[in-house]
Design brief:
174 residues
Amino acid sequence: MRIGPPGDSGPPPPLLAEMVREHLGKGRRISLRTGGLSMIPLLPPGVLLTLRPLDPGEVPGPGSLVALVVQDHLVCHLLRDRRKTPSGTEIQTAGLLPDHPDPWTDVSEVLGIVCEVRLGSRALPVSSEAFRAWQTLARQLAPSLRVLKRGLRLLVPPGIRRRVYRLLATPFGS
């Protein structure tokens, strides 16, 4: 799921990623708004995510929501797996809706870890039982939503697909 500054526009993705890396590198938290669809139903478009920097030597565990750069875009995805390599630790992330994971990448590419999710006036720490329960439910719903998305590809004209996807995502965030 692509993420960016609150508001409608922002700097180009590579510059944004560098700005976030610099901000978190100073030990500060930062809030960014979601804009993509890959993390539906867990994170609908428009959710405000608060990222915290990684502690020195910290390697996030599977299930963590991490921010990193994938194909020149700043994204928030679930950490699916990690492995030791001769040069350190690599991680694999993925959204909930795509059928394929992101490429393996060095853990140093993680810019930050999501510590809070805010929708409107509601803020939910990702460490809370409520968020963990929602995360479990979202993972169980994701395969059905992938099937629905494939079906929509066949039935809905390309020009309006994204609007239909967003419309379907709206009830999850309400």
